[in-house]
Amino acid sequence: MRTDSSPGTLPAREHLPAADAGTPVLDVVIPVYNEEKDLQPCVRRLHDHLKRTFPYAFRITVADNASTDTTPQVAARLAREIPEVSNFRLEQKGRGRALATVWSASDAPILAYMDVDLSTDLNALLPLVAPLISGHSDLAIGSRLARSSRVVRGPKREFISRTYNLILRGSLQARFSDAQCGFKAIRRDVAQVLLPLVEDTGWFFDTEMLVLAERAGLRIHEVPVDWVDDPDSTVHIVRTATDDLKGVWRVGKALATGSLSLDRLARPFGDDPRDRDIQDVPKGLARQLVGFVAVGVLSTLFYLLLYSLFRQFSGSQTANAFALLVSAVANTAANRRLTFGVRGRGGAVRHQAQGLVVFGIGLALTSGSLAALNAAGPSPAHSTELAVLIAANLAATVLRFLLFRAWVFPDRGDSGPGSGPGSGSGSTVVAGHTPCAPLPHQQSYEAGDGTWRDATMRVRPVRPHDTEPRDPR
């Protein structure tokens, strides 16, 4: 994989300013190979549509992939007759090569492409590029597999398309729905950094570009399209499918070995709303809830096992007290490490002491439930005792989480070094250089070997802004 482009971060996405009438905002590329029959009606229809509906200046670029028929002459004639049409000739075949070459040389801030057969209804073009113009998204793709798409094509192509996208989801964890629809757009600032990483020059170019963009955290907008299959398509299905599978293997291997420098595609810190420190909005609540529930389920099973064990040689109240005490210590330790991310021994005794207070509240709830059960009738069944204890523990669990979050493991990230979760680990946490404090997964740790490590221990090279003064958090 290519990794020779200079590293750097993308600028923050912004709405494109209103441009002069002569400056194209959109450059639509039509890659062609021996399309002398379809090229002229395609270009004229597209030009008429853009003239009528597109509110910005535009350009249509015909990218000729070394055609051997009269396609170059047709393209040259269209460029002479229509001011908004230009012609670009390549002496090598490859749709990906044509797109990468023309997009890299274009001065338009929004770059798009569509197939010459115009299988996709042109009414989807403005919805495709609008999120890129507004700064909402980085790339946009037409999807024939969205629920609201209306598609007319044979069962063979339908099966191949859906199978291919299932392969992408299973092997490369792709979340976009349609990789090969010939209807896509990208912001030029993204293309300038992303395209040097894309190695394929053929039909897999689209897939590779989307997978790398998605893995880098860029936003991909999907537009449902109306699409009618072209029965005269010259695409060789078997050869294209084989090349695509080879590309899937190559990209998957590169991602697995970490040979791609996807950090250069990162947006500036603060561009993502998740970077922001917003008052009255708790940080990491969803993640903590998931961790707390997982720990709670295991703790409850452990508690019930202990209770059943102690109940064999003691009364219900004694068995409940001992089982709850042992499971409470284990629960506090697990939540301290897994749910609230506190590492090291610092504060562990205090946390356990506070956990025991929370344990006392849980003991009062469960003991009170057992007392009420025994008062209702003598010698209740063991299954009834367990059912009552489960219900009481559910109530205690909600209260336990609130007390853990607000009192035992509060978020004190703004109170100085070592005051919040993660203190006592001996690591130096370095905050970002923006006014917004980073989330835990975005904090960096100086490794001392010319690299920085984030909270997931991924290594990235030192960037220029890493040398600026930082406030320790």
Task: Describe the overall structure.
The model is unreliable at 1-8 and 413-473 (pLDDT under 50). This protein is an alpha/beta fold. 33% of the residues are buried. α9 packs antiparallel against α12. The chain has helices at 39-53, 71-81, 95-105, 125-134, 155-172, 188-194, 205-215, 237-257, 285-310, 316-339, 348-376, 382-408, and strands at residues 26-32, 58-65, 85-90, 110-114, 139-143, 150-152, 183-187, 220-224, 226-228, 429-430, 444-446, 451-454, 459-461. The two termini are 37 Å apart. β11 (444-446) and β12 (451-454) form a beta hairpin. It is elongated, with a radius of gyration of 30 Å. The chain contains twelve helices and 13 strands.
Radius of gyration: 30 Å
Strand content: 5-15%
Mean of all residue-level pLDDT scores: 78
Order of helices and strands: EHEHEHEHEEHEHHEEHHHHHEEEE
User: Do you know the CATH architecture of the largest domain?
Assistant: Alpha-Beta Complex
Low-confidence stretches: 1-8, 413-473
Distance between the termini: 37 Å
From the spread of the alpha carbons, the general shape counts as: elongated
Helix content: 40-55%
CATH class of the largest domain: Alpha Beta
Q: How many beta-strand elements?
A: 13
CATH superfamily of the largest domain: Spore Coat Polysaccharide Biosynthesis Protein SpsA, Chain A
Strand arrangement within the widest β-sheet reads: 3-2-1-4-7-5-8
Number of helices: 12
Structural class, from secondary structure content? alpha/beta
Give the biggest sheet.
Answer: 7 strands, mixed
User: How many domains make up the coordinates?
Assistant: 3
| CATH topology type of the largest domain | Spore Coat Polysaccharide Biosynthesis Protein SpsA, Chain A
Pathway: Protein modification; protein glycosylation
Transmembrane segments: 289-310, 355-374, 386-403
InterPro entries: DPG_synthase, Glyco_trans_2-like, GtrA_DPMS_TM, Nucleotide-diphossugar_trans
Region (Disordered): 414-473
